[in-house]
Amino acid sequence: MTVQESGAEPKTAGMKDVAAAAGVSLGTVSNVLNRPDRVSPATRAKVETAMAELRFVRNESARQLRAGRSRVLAYVMLDGSNPFFTDVAAGMEDAADAGDLSLFLCNSAHQPSREAAYLGRLEQQRVQGILITPVDPDAPLLHEIALRGTPVVVVDRTPGGTTHCSVAVDDVYGGEIAVRHLIEQGHDRIAFIGNHTTVGQVRDRRLGALRALHAAGLGPDHLVDLTTTALTVADGRGAGERLAGLPAAVRPTAAFCANDLVALGLLQTCANLRMRVPEDMAIVGYDDIEFAAAAAVPLTSVRQPRRRLGRTAAELLLAEAEPGHEHRQVVFTPELVVRASTLR
């Protein structure tokens, strides 16, 4: 009776089995796996043939256990439903691929407890480093993890100190150029839609909006806050309904949304209520995700270099292992991409 006929699990081939089948030493098999340039092409071909016939798969877990560190980077993103973060992750993957590493994705969903749980698991699994868009960039846990030997890079946020590398975008400037554009289009009463009381990036974008108003000689009362609980399409739709319910005399003629998902939700409500965009309501989003240009009315948006943001963050993380490494805080400058949602 064969092993499979008995119902038992088939035996997994190991390096010793490959060496015996190929007629080579265990060291030669190890060299084929780790230093193939040291093995002659003919011998390497024999070993690779034996691996294929035995269905050999190297035991990476054992290798990582010996090394004390895995070949994995991890990204704890703030909101897995937002395409902005998946675009950032794609840039990280570019850098990970170049370093022959894997990238593991986690979604904290804005929940501090979930974020802490992921960080604990990743540290226990000895990942090579952690990239994170944190709920709180100054959370003590991030510093503690780094002190225990797992490098941490903060993404899309700038921590208060210099205990980590970080990569971010100048969101104050991004908010400023968004509202300056709306003012140049003739709008002097502008809605700001987002959860600026809980999210640091949104708070900075609102600050930039106020700066643009001040530079134009307009007071803060010219910015009408429509605070949301999150930054989703549904939040944008709800904000649009609230906007439409305001008396015409005080209703803003333009809206600066904290991200593109909110802006797309607002655009949907405008279409449902037959509010013309941009004639009745001009709309600016933030991030310039792929859906912004593909909207029914192409969306003006503040573009963040999403993929570059992720790639740079991962490169900083990999550089942590270099002698004399010093933490860097990299800040990119966003740009305004003007489309039909603001051009009359």
Q: Low-confidence parts lasting 5 or more residues at pLDDT below 50?
A: 1-8
The best one-word shape is elongated
Can you summarize the main beta sheet?
6 strands, parallel
What is the number of beta strands? 12
**Terminus-to-terminus distance:** 80 Å
Strand order of the largest sheet: 2-1-3-4-5-11
Overview of the molecule:
- The protein has 344 residues and is an alpha/beta fold.
- It has helices at 15-22, 26-34, 41-54, 60-67, 83-98, 112-124, 140-147, 171-184, 200-215, 233-244, 260-272, 290-294, 306-319; strands at residues 72-77, 102-107, 129-132, 152-155, 165-169, 190-194, 223-227, 254-257, 282-287, 300-303, 329-332, 335-337.
- A 6-stranded parallel beta sheet has the order 2-1-3-4-5-11, sandwiched between helices. A 6-stranded mixed beta sheet has the order 7-6-8-9-10-12, sandwiched between helices.
- Helix 5 (83-98) packs across helix 13 and helix 10 packs across helix 11.
- It is elongated, with a radius of gyration of 26 Å.
Concise description?
This protein is an alpha/beta fold. The chain contains 13 helices and 12 strands.
Secondary structure layout plus pairing:
Blueprint: H1 15-22, H2 26-34, H3 41-54, H4 60-67, E1 72-77, H5 83-98, E2 102-107, H6 112-124, E3 129-132, H7 140-147, E4 152-155, E5 165-169, H8 171-184, E6 190-194, H9 200-215, E7 223-227, H10 233-244, E8 254-257, H11 260-272, E9 282-287, H12 290-294, E10 300-303, H13 306-319, E11 329-332, E12 335-337
Parallel strand pairs: 1-2, 1-3, 3-4, 4-5, 5-11, 6-7, 6-8, 8-9, 9-10
Antiparallel strand pairs: 10-12
Helix pairs in contact: 1-2, 1-3, 5-13, 8-9, 10-11
